[in-house]
Design goal:
Blueprint (H helix, E strand, L loop, with lengths): L6 E6 L14 E2 L2 E2 H11 L5 E6 L2 H9 L3 E4 L11 H9 L9 E4 L9 H13 L4 E7 L36 E11 H7 L8 E5 L11 H12 L1
Parallel strand pairs: 1-4, 1-6, 4-5, 7-9
Antiparallel strand pairs: 2-3, 6-8, 7-8
Length: 229
């Protein structure tokens, strides 16, 4: 709880993954990947309850051993095209109505996000008097140096005029989603069916080294390397 605001953390952890099989249970520095998000939530000063949602018995059993609640997810909500909103609605069936004012979504693929980040994002929510906070980090390469390629791979007009003949430090700073923290007032989340509210939403800026979002084997290797330092 923070200033009489209550927070329910949901950690969505599927057992399957196409690019990196069973990634949420892969050992990262002798701990399963999901353990990092669970431990961060447990150490948070302001999160009131933690629920792991998964269709995997292995993930659910491991989560229980760490002392958090679990919800067995229906297989129809564990597919590649299943939405986070559907998963959250399923979890809410097992929660006492009106007990929690905010949802804190912590994806297990962000092992370098810690309890300090979570608590700072919650404080930012209150300080800015908004209904949602989403974490971002700076883009390592400006999107102004990116574009689509046609079938013939022609680079005619690949760059826009404002990006031509400029050094990287001369370009405007861009930010990207890093997937680490999503916080939203439950009432607004249910109404808009998204964390990306139409108004009263701000970014929580995180450093790039904490923003690894594990989706591939390379992401896993990068996280492993960073955790050694």
């Amino acid at each position: 709880m923070y200033k009489n605001k209550t927070f329910l953390s949901i950690i969505p952890a599927r057992g399957g993954s196409k690019r990196l099989p069973k990634k949420n249970l892969l050992k990262l520095k002798n701990k399963p990947l999901i353990a990092y998000s669970i431990n961060a939530a447990l150490k948070s000063k302001y999160i009131d309850k933690i629920i792991v949602s998964s269709e995997s018995k292995l993930i659910l059993n491991f989560s229980k051993k760490l002392g958090v609640d679990t919800v067995k997810r229906p297989k129809k909500l564990a597919k590649n095209n299943s939405t986070i909103f559907e998963v959250i609605k399923n979890v809410l069936k097992y929660v006492e109505p009106n007990k929690y004012e905010y949802i804190v979504l912590l994806q297990p693929t962000s092992p370098l996000r810690n309890e300090k980040n979570i608590d700072e994002a919650i404080k930012l929510l209150d300080k800015k008097k908004v209904n949602a906070v989403i974490s971002v980090c700076k883009c390592s390469h400006s999107p102004l140096w990116s574009n689509l390629l046609p079938k013939n791979d022609s680079m005619v007009n690949f760059l826009k005029k404002d990006a031509l003949n400029k050094q990287s430090q001369e370009l405007k700073e861009y930010y990207r989603l890093n997937g680490a923290i999503y916080i939203c007032k439950l009432e607004n989340l249910l109404k808009e069916k998204s964390f990306f509210l139409k108004k009263k939403i701000v970014a929580y800026k995180m450093p790039e080294y904490q923003s690894v979002d594990i989706d591939t084997k390379l992401d896993f290797i990068i996280a492993k390397t960073l955790l050694k330092n």
